[in-house]
Amino acid sequence: MQLQVKGKNVSVTDALFEHAERKLERLTKILPAYEDDSTTVELELSVERNPRVERPQVAEITVRTKRAVLRVHESADDMYAAIDQATHKLERQARRYRKRKVDHHARAVNGATEAEVLAVPDLPPLPDAEETTPAANLVKSKRFRMEPMGAEEAALHMDMLHHDFYVFRNEASGEVNVVYRRRDGDYGLIVPED
Description:
Layout: E1 2-8, H1 14-24, H2 27-30, E2 40-47, E3 57-64, E4 69-76, H3 79-103, H4 114-117, E5 148-149, H5 151-161, E6 165-170, E7 176-181, E8 187-190
Helix pairs in contact: 1-3, 3-5
């Protein structure tokens, strides 16, 4: 496991680095053994300069493994406390990831099969491109590598990242799909039509 510690508006002392390293070392025992070699951990420490912020010391941890990205963000009055809170939250998230990873093939959600849970109703056709006007300007573009995975594993990644949708390459079909969180709390799957 490779650890990178960055400071934003704060200098990263040897004591802070050693404290973070000691706390994050426990993560190697939680994540599956095959994840350890390629796992990178980025810890960004920052201090909010806004006087209205109650807890200005911030620790944000991003863990990148072969198959998942875990991210936490915690703030406290003290930098050491922010690191402690973030690592504790990350450990819970990693345990949840490991548990779901182990039994995601065998488990059916509420007694339904994966296909039933992720079924998408027929959607109305999209309006012609000439009729639509963008509501806002495109402000960010992102590139990322898409590992082939199943829809349920993509939903797990979406939960770990605290996102509302997740784009992935379906391991069964090889197509790019999108899993998303519905308003009722269930998941949906968007599959391209030929």
